[in-house]
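step 3/5: co-fold with nicotinamide-adenine-dinucleotide
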Amino acid sequence: MDLQTAEIKVKELQTLLNQYNYEYHVLDQPSVPDSEYDRLLKELIEIETQYPELKTTDSPTQRVGGEILDMFEKVQHQSQMLSLGNAFNEQDLRDFDRRVRQSAGENVSYVCELKIDGLAVSLRYEEGLFVLGATRGDGSIGENITANLRTIRSIPLRLNKDLSMEVRGEAFMPKRSFEALNKLKAEKGEDAFANPRNAAAGSLRQLDPRIAASRNLDVFLYGVSDTGETGVESHSEALDLLDTLGFKTNKERKKCANIEEVLEFIEKWTSERPNLVYDIDGIVIKVDSLDQQQELGTTAKSPRWAIAYKFPAEEVVTTLKSIELSVGRTGVITPTAILEPVRVAGTTVQRASLHNEDLIREKDIKMGDQVVIKKAGDIIPEVVNVLAERRTGEEVEFHMPTHCPECESELVRLDGEVALRCINPKCPAQIREGLIHFVSRNAMNIDGLGEKVISQLFSKNLIQDVADIYKLTFEQLIGLERMGEKSANNLLEAIEASKVNSLEKLLFGLGIRHVGAKVAKTLAQQFVQMDELMNAGYEQLTAINEIGEKMADSIVSYFELEEARALIDELKAAGVNMEYTGPKRVSIEQSESIFAGKTVVLTGKLEKLKRNEAKDKIEALGGNVSGSVSKKTDIVIAGEDAGSKLAKAQELGIEIWDEERLIEELNV
Ligand SMILES: NC(=O)c1ccc[n+]([C@@H]2O[C@H](COP(=O)([O-])OP(=O)(O)OC[C@H]3O[C@@H](n4cnc5c(N)ncnc54)[C@H](O)[C@@H]3O)[C@@H](O)[C@H]2O)c1
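step 4/5: write tokens
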């Protein structure tokens, strides 16, 4: 990059970063994920390192925190509240370790702490009394938020010793409180907070402390600003001191003898992090010895003796290159975003389902857009939103086609549906997807017959419908790509084994509309034989509790089809089992009863019913009768002179009935 381009780029990045800083620190409403902010900041640092003459004192790389608001009184910190340098991978950490050892000598040990995703606060005590609490602000001057901090229960208002000191920590909002708060905001039609960090910051910047008090904030202390008088020689001792003074510190910290132990700690928390009741966004690694810390010193922005390792981002920005269409088993056309490959939460993502056209309109997605991607439930990638302000004008609007991309027949929108469908029963895409569904795990569960093999068999015309699967020969299979003798034999065995599956697997595999795995099971249990089901009428079907009108209609019309009956005959001829062989169904009477699946304990003397009689009746209605009361007990029936079992039930808060109530429920 030449100087001129660099200058333009630096200006551009500074403007963007300043805007993002303002949104994040002042408004508590970031418009891009942190990973994007971090990426741009890194880019700016790189250019400024290459061209130091472009580095200005007001560059975002030179700032510690955010803006200081006029709303609150300003507070001068006793010592600077710095930010931390970032590490994003093992190499960054090893580089940090090398730099540390170069300056502080080989004999270095570290303390690893969870990096709580909240905001830094400073608490001042005078002669043991909490007198002042402040935000970090720009590092030297923060905002006085004492009244709000006093509402946090874990902040001691008086210490165990009459010390005068300033301590530092992280105020945060536990995950549950964050969810509850956002739910409340949604109910009121207000904007949700982007993350618990912004929610905590927003709560502590309220003028009315009653609001902060209602937000369930908490705090972990992680440092003492000046250890001079305390006799403490290391960071771990400082944390222990905080404990003895009555502060809340995070107990998940660990002293590490070298960088390998640090890496182990990081690995452990990368996987255990979801189990915590608060969010963490990384691990902070600090040199333990205070002497060594001094020797290492600080830069304008952060200490050289500490670094923050950031977990792989869960939300990132990438380009949506194009939108691809696929035809599903039921003919539904699904648009999928094709993305510039990007790492999200540790894996590379290049596609994300967009579900339907309405969603594309709602999120205003165009091809060529910069989009925020996240993994929903950390598995399925999802487009969260578009960064509309980054548009260049080159982006292209997407329109759903009018004809099927596979068979070119006209697409339709069925009543009340958002999805477009191809309704041509001969559409090759639908047939292929139907075959894939038939062999899938919840259906016939044929191992070794995955999407790739099915697609090959289908395109070679070796299978046209599911019955053809049972006609496949060794010679046909061995001719496929990457199919050795052993795999071909295994596959034939798996196909053979699937013939004895219980009826519900076949029913689900046929892909009858509205018949999911659960409905298939109900039908199989109810009718036991395929023939019985095929001959069942609408009335007979709707008489079953779980079968609605739509389902009944769909089942009846499916079996009325000539092709469907012919297919079943072919499957029968191939030796596929047509009978339900699973456990017996609980009768409707049982499943509807108040006792269904409940554990009941009888205690004391019953007046009208005999114990055994009561037991049999409860069991006939699907309940289990047990002899002892535990947390698993649902109902305790207490007769005359009931003793310890009744007492225990009361203690555990279990539902208690008298004999009258039992008689009423048993209807005897
Ligand atoms: N999305 C956006 O638009 C946007 C804009 C600006 C900043 N940001 C984000 O804000 C952050 C920058 O904030 P920062 O300067 O506070 O740096 P930082 O979050 O990277 O790290 C420093 C902070 O970590 C916290 N921390 C938590 N646990 C700690 C512990 N045990 N010991 C020491 N410190 C601990 C402290 O508050 C400390 O100030 C980055 O994550 C950045 O992505 C995002």
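step 5/5: annotate
The chain has five domains: 3-62, 74-310, 315-412, 428-573, 588-666.
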